[in-house]
Structures are given as C-alpha cells and as structure tokens.
Design a protein that fits this description.
The protein is an alpha/beta fold. The chain has 15 helices and 17 strands. A hairpin with a 2-residue loop joins strand 9 and strand 10.
Length: 440
C-alpha cells in the first residue's frame, strides 16, 4: 500500500526495467480482474508514427469546444507525469494517481507470479487509465493514444467508435519491422470490424496495407487526399491556416496556432473524425466548435516557441520523419537566422539519417547525454555528425544557460530530439529564460 504520491510514482517508473513486452494477454488478465472497465466507455483510438499527440489534442479541443467532457490517455508526458491521464486537458491529481496505483499494484504483484509475467510500466499506466475513466471520472469520450505499434499495444483491447492512423514512418524498426509496409501492418492492427478508420498516411505502400486491412475488417476508410483533402495552406507567424474539403462540407480558412504544415494534416484527420461522429448521431458538433477547437488546441513540445527574445524553440522530433518536418519549418521560417541546435536521442533510432538532416541546417550543433535507460550518449551522437561546428555535452543544464545568455538578435536556439529529453529540458529552459535578456 502506497502512502504518498512519490512512492507510487517510483513504483511505476521502476517497472521500466521490464522494458517493452508486446502483447494483449496481460492487459486482458487485468481488465478481467477489474470488471472490464475497457468496455464501459466510448472511445476513439489514435495510432501512427508521428502526430498522434497533436491529433488527440485537436480532437479533444474540438469536442470540448462543443461542450463535451473528454478524457485523454497520452504518452510520454512533457510537463508532468499526471498529464498522461487527463480530463479536458487537465491532468489527474496526485491523490487520484495514488488511488489508482494502490488499485493496480496488487494485480501487478499477482500477475507477476503467473506465466504471463509482470506488467510493464506502460501496461500499468494503461490499466490505471481504463479504471479511472470507467469508475472514478466518467466522461463523454476517451481518446486513447497508442504507445507503440498498434496490433499488440496495450491500448488495443478497446472497441472504439473510430480509429485514426496519422502517418507511417520508419520508427521502432527493431520491434515493428524495417519497411513502411511491415510497420503499417502493425499500425493497422487498431482497425476494428465495421468501425471507421481515418488516415493521413501518404506513403503508397503503407496506405495500401491499411486499405487491405480495412477491407478485411469491412471498415469504412477515409483517406487524406481522397475522401478528404487540404487546400489553400498558408503559414502564419504563429500557426497555420488551411481549407478542408470532404463529402460532408467545405470548411474555409481553418486556423491553427500549432506550427508546421504537418499539423494541418493532423487537424484534418481530427476534423474528419468529428464529422463522422456527428453524422453518425453520436455527438453534435457544429462548425463554430470546429473552428474554435482547432484555434485553441495546444500541445507542448511540438515546435513550441518558449521565447521570442531570445528565440528559443523546443520540438520533440524523435525520428526521421519528425526531423524532416522540423528542418523544413526551420528553413522556411528562419532561413535568415543563425540556427544553433541541441540534440538528444534514444539509441534505438535511425540516428545517422536524423543527424545528417540537422547537420545541413545547423550553424552549430551540440549533442547531449541525459538520464534515461535507452538514451544515447552525446559522444556517440557526435561521432555520427559531419558538421564543422559540433560538440558533445554532459552537463547540459549549465551549457544551455550559457548558450541562451550568449544568443544575439539574429540567433536562435532549437532543442530537439527525444520527447523524454524534452520533458526534462523544458522546465529548465523556462526557469532560466525568466532571467535572460537578449544581447544586441
């Protein structure tokens, strides 16, 4: 029995030692013991390589603007652990997390004694989310973000109203496969029988796999650039504007405050999902709620401008597709700036190609080590870089403070890479930025 929040959190984090164990058997065992909370809620399932968190946010924000109460289950966290289970964007309280940990702990201990083995950290948190939304805080809809892959992800025990696959990229290839098609097959595992699937996947081979799986499951499919499409995209100083066409209607000049052309695709998938739910009579959402929800949507750590003077941006670009989106935006928006990049990553990524893309646009690039089980060291990252102006950093908090102090009006600092690193670095940056004024 845990008596404090910190005890509960330490127990959850300690389960990282179990690593990743794909499969649904442990989740099904826990759900059976808990009285099947996964069957007591309306849900939407969101999978994909990049854009899951943003799509969840757009969908939640639109529904919230329409007057609904929406639960979300996302990962990893950026500002505090509790945000992984949230209601209308507000993380659960420390007291609620303590309650949930005390409910799941006995099950985890019992499960550990079976042939299935103990649940992983992610499985424990997923079980906590199911119990919370079924028994502690009932909501109108829960949006579950897939943790890894889809087919064997612990969230994949739900029967959702709709499923979304944002895009497909070469990530977690050691687990999901080393081709777009193999990864798409794993992602397509969230498609349920006769349940709508909305997708923004553009890679032809990956899309073909999703289409085949949708046909097998007799699931109506709605594809970007086919059943719905984007036009008239323009980048704003702090966001994007675009128009969306579908069989339902034409929505002109939809505005986002989240930065990046890729965010228009995530937003389009969210809007299409909302319209499907609306036309199925499950929710009532008007155009005003769509516009308001998109404009208000905010998701930390995604091309987030922490400061204008000095210009400091953080972005959780943790794979090649994410790095491509980041570098495209930096070249498009800040080609006249001196770009200084700080990069941290997990060692199970395709790091050589990611670093090569950053090398091309960085005037200076720094590689840092951080405390996480699968983190690469700054020295190992440095060896992969061909930049003429590069270095490895161990004491990154001190280094970042000095770098920010030395930024001039034509400079910018971009901190990117692992979302786990972004969650650690953001509070440090925000604290130090309060005491820094730009050098002219």
């Amino acid at each position: 029995m845990f008596t404090t929040y910190n005890e509960a959190l330490e127990w959850i984090h300690a389960r990282l030692r179990l690593g990743i164990k794909p499969g649904l058997s442990r989740m099904e065992w826990m759900m059976n013991k808990l009285g099947s909370p996964d069957k007591k809620m309306k849900a939407v399932h969101v999978g994909g390589t990049n854009g899951k968190g943003s799509t969840v946010t757009f969908l939640r924000s639109i529904l919230e603007a329409g007057g609904y109460t929406v639960g979300t289950f996302t990962s990893p966290y950026i500002e505090q652990f509790n945000e992984r289970i949230s209601v209308n964007g507000k993380p659960i309280t420390d007291e609620e997390l303590l309650l949930l940990a005390n409910i799941i702990r006995p099950l985890a201990d019992e499960l550990e004694e079976t042939e299935l083995g103990g649940p992983t950290e992610f499985e424990v948190i997923t079980a906590m989310a199911f119990y919370y939304f079924a028994n502690v805080q009932m909501v109108d809809l829960v949006i579950f973000e897939v943790g890894l892959g889809g087919r064997f992800d612990s969230t994949n025990i739900i029967q959702p109203l709709a499923s979304i696959i944002t895009n497909i990229g070469l990530d977690h290839t050691n687990i999901l496969g080393n081709t777009y098609e193999k990864i798409a097959f794993e992602k397509a595992g969230i498609i349920k029988a006769k349940t709508p699937i909305i997708t923004a996947v553009k890679h032809p081979g990956a899309l073909k796999v999703i289409e085949e799986q949708a046909e097998v499951k007799e699931a109506p499919i709605f594809r970007l650039n086919k059943e719905f499409s984007i036009s008239g995209h323009e980048s704003l100083a702090r966001g994007e504007v675009f128009s969306l066409s579908s069989s339902f209607n034409e929505l002109e000049q939809l505005e986002l405050t989240m930065i990046g052309q890729h965010q228009t695709e995530n937003a389009a998938a969210a809007v299409m999902t909302v319209q499907l739910l609306h036309h199925a009579g499950l929710f009532s959402i008007n155009v005003m709620a769509i516009r308001e929800g998109l404009k208000k949507a905010y998701w930390p750590g995604r091309f987030e401008v922490l400061s204008e003077k000095p210009l400091v941006i953080i972005d959780g670009a943790h794979n090649e597709e994410g790095i491509t989106s980041l570098t495209n935006e930096l070249v498009s928006r800040f080609h006249d700036r001196n770009i200084q990049i700080v990069f941290a990553a997990l060692k199970d990524k395709k790091l050589d190609e990611m670093i090569a893309k950053l090398d091309k646009i960085a005037n200076k690039i720094s590689f840092v080590s951080f405390d996480f089980p699968r983190a690469s060291t700054g020295e190992d990252l440095l060896k992969l870089s061909q930049s003429a102006n590069k270095l490895a950093v161990t004491e990154w908090p001190t280094y970042l403070l000095e770098e920010m102090k030395n930024l001039r009006d034509h400079d910018m600092l971009v901190v990117t890479g692992s979302l786990y690193f972004i969650s650690v670095v953001k509070p440090v940056l925000c604290k130090n930025l309060k005491n820094i004024t730009i050098s002219l």
